[in-house]
Fold each of these.
Amino acid sequence: MENVRDPRQHINEEPRDDLNDTAMGFFAMFGFMFVVFTVAVVIKFIID
């Protein structure tokens, strides 16, 4: 490999599904924030 900066010489060894990765990240973050919100609401009701 003479020119290591030439993108044509680098084979994509592990193809990624960007839409699926984005969707999974969104739903994982949404789930985490939903849990945080639920815990905060429960704590607020316990305090009051």
Amino acid sequence: MLIKSSEFFKNLPPKKCIECGQEMEEQHECYGNKCNECLQVVYK
């Protein structure tokens, strides 16, 4: 049985950073796998 792609993405588990294990707040289907802290992103 096929499901809608929107349902598939909605049911994915929260994404976790591969370096520290923290849950990431971004979209689960994105390609990034490190959180902002591990990437050392600075917001101004």
Amino acid sequence: MGWWKPEAGIHLGGKCLLETEPLQGRDEDAVASADFSTMLSEEEKEELKAELVQLEDEITTLRQVLSAKERHLVEIKQKLGMNLMNELKQNFSKSWHDMQTTPAYKKTHETLSHAGQKATAAFSNVGTAISKKFGDMRRR
């Protein structure tokens, strides 16, 4: 038996037990509460048990391969001087740059810059007015 093929399915009495459409709502409840073991012959049960063992073995193998690839990835990153902090810095820098190039950021920056200039001018005018008042008070 090779990899499981969904199109192969499990057939009983000419009817395929494995559908290609996802289950929904009541279908899921019906499948969860159904006891298919009574519908299967002993031969079919043995075939399914053998397939189950094979699938579990394949899953174990895939997990081992994935783990080995993850270790290899870490080794390569270490050799390249990449670590979590560097990756975070790079991701942050890229995200910050991407954000700064958005039209919304540019418009907000322009608006706040303009508001800042007006606020600076207003504070300057208030400062000038206060200085003038103090000057007037001293002269009296």
Amino acid sequence: MQTIWLSGAEWCAVLRIGLGLWWLESWRHKDKKTWFAGGGIAWAAGIADKHRWRVVRTGFDRLVKPRPRLMAYLVAYAELALGLGLVLGLLSPIALVAGAVLNLVYLVLMIHDWAEQGQNLMMALISLAALGAMSWQSWSLDGALGLFR
């Protein structure tokens, strides 16, 4: 594979790191006080209540609604962990799969909002490309530690 400036593996690492920075921005821009007080989950509950797919409404009501504080922390710290894992290249394949799953959850929840879909689809696509290209081969703790060869 011929590339400009960097090797193919290094370009894949750029994708992985960029995706990690995107997750860190998702963490950074949250109003933590409102989010952890249940604001984010309350907003999502309003979306789920009007969702066109019954399975989404039912799943949200059974899994998320009874645990708003736990879910708020889970979502926020998952975004932080994904960002750090991808930027540092630590447990990268796990972070890439988890990130793609989280983006698909967001995608399904926000199926009617095309503005959100672009971000979630792009992040999921980058996750899949970075996973398939084994983007942890360069510039990563995984590579330095010999993990996931």
